[in-house]
Design goal:
Two copies of one chain form a homodimer. By secondary structure, chain A is of the alpha/beta class. Chain A contains eleven helices and 13 strands. The interface between A and B is medium-sized, with 34 and 34 residues.
């Protein structure tokens, strides 16, 4: 079924203990779309400036990603992000950011995309996420990401958003901050009380936690990867694998969402094995399915 | 089958955000024995000074814990530990330690205990662990704990120990330190190369990881506890539930060890719900089995 993503497209420069990747393709909607395309057709909505050095139709050639919502805005400049990962690969420093086109008006959702059943609102200002969501007709399942910046500075907008989406995906530090509660299980319950049906808390190399408003819980370790070259995009690849599988199955019952979290987890494990999109583009649905089987073996008792 | 533990008995003073527990019963062999006694008879080896304020036969009354290896040493003083847990309940500060009897000669393993099939060498100087192990006849499965202090200061002794035991249980920071490697999966493999067959790495609220020298892996989240009053003894209760189940089953194949890790995990979840032994003594095997079923439900997909 139809899956739409709106998010950033970035010119990334990433330093890790394994090397440097300069001015490579990044951004939340890029990682999400590449990951989700292993499962379901993706409708892409995003904006770049006229300086964008990437040929996105070429990047997604042969994959079922509809770039009908890609806007190249004359006179604007593309989002730029520079980051450094430290030895343990969990902590990163943002060295440099140029928001550029991301601080202008958001892209328009094409008419042909407004009937999308599944929607991912990648991390941006919650007011923009609300505006983008307002352009959709009647989506069955909307998931959104957020970050510490909006929890600090735009909490009212964020709380309004949380009443209009079905699923919030965020990391452990953000969840503790939003709930004002150091116990993650309790934080999940407190955030669910703000409105949505499902919350997924990502814990990096420690896996993830999903809780629903009717008391279901799911806990999954990360895939045991020894090859970690560049963690950039892992979170958006997780979301892409998760929503890609949800859209493929067309269901949102908790058992389906559990399997979707597992697919998100193994999809992200490919992303981190290379710089930029190299890890994702080098894999296949068969390889993703094999890791899913392995992860089930590693976690069952 | 027979299970022996050697470890500390302590007079603990613990501060957490939930309160203070002064001069309460603690120590690795105490938590281990209480936890393991839900599964199998325990043979207890440990030493206190003549100042020990606790009536250990009363503490273990009604439980199958043989205190035949408890030595009350005249003229010596009991081990004392003061610690403070901070808001997130993962970090703790040791405020005060008096090793006292723990820096004297180790206790003697009674003749009647020397044929024990399963052995846990709780955390102490590796030379002492070697000496205690040397008093055993031919144990089938020996597990040991260690800590940063010995990795820093007694690495040669520790490496000698690792060649004589079957299973090492330690936490994530200790594993990274011992392997000199920030990736936990790689650290597990590097440590296995030092001699033992199985390594279990505890990650606190993020669960645990078990790897074997023939490539098996098991990843398990922590039980999703919202009631965390005092984490003291969680690691030793984990070890007690783990080895208790191993001794009960009498097997050490990887599938049995996976189930044993799950039992260790849920047993520890009771320990942290109260100060000192309150969480453990207030539970039952039936309640432990129910949490095991719940944990399987929370983690399967």
């Amino acid at each position: 079924m139809s899956l739409l993503v709106t998010g950033s497209i970035g010119i990334d420069t990433v330093k890790t203990p394994h090397g440097v990747s300069e001015r490579c393709l990044g951004g939340s909607s890029i990682y999400f779309s590449m990951a989700a395309s292993f499962f379901a057709p993706v409708r892409f909505v995003g904006v770049v400036g006229q300086d964008c050095p990437f040929d996105l139709p070429q990047v997604f050639a042969g994959r079922d990603v509809d770039l009908g919502g890609l806007e190249v805005r004359p006179g604007s400049k593309t989002f730029v992000w520079h980051g450094t990962y430290h030895d343990n690969m969990n902590d990163r420093t943002t060295d440099h950011v140029e928001l550029n086109v991301l601080q202008e008006a958001p892209p328009k959702v094409p008419d042909a995309f407004r009937d999308s059943q599944f929607v991912f609102l990648a991390n941006t200002a919650p007011a923009l996420q609300l505006e983008l969501l307002g352009q959709m007709a009647a989506p069955a399942f909307v998931a959104a990401d957020t970050m510490n910046l909006w929890i600090d500075a735009n909490l009212d907008d964020l709380k309004q958003l949380l009443q209009k989406i079905h699923c919030l995906i965020l990391n452990d530090e953000e969840a503790k901050q939003l709930a004002g509660q150091p116990n993650l299980i309790q934080a999940a319950e407190d955030i669910l009380a703000m409105g949505m049906e499902v919350i997924i808390i990502k814990k990096g190399e420690s896996g993830s936690l999903m809780c629903s408003s009717n008391g279901d819980k799911f806990l999954l370790p990360a895939y045991p990867a020894t090859e970690v070259i560049d963690p950039t995009g892992a979170g958006d690849s997780f979301a892409g694998g998760f929503l890609g599988y949800v859209a493929e199955s067309g269901r949102t019952d908790f058992d389906t969402l559990k399997l979707a979290v597992a697919y998100g987890t193994v999809t992200a494990s490919f992303t981190i094995a290379g710089f930029s999109l190299d890890g994702l583009t080098g894999t296949s649905r068969a390889a993703i399915d094999q890791r899913l089987k392995d992860l089930r073996q590693f976690t069952s008792f």
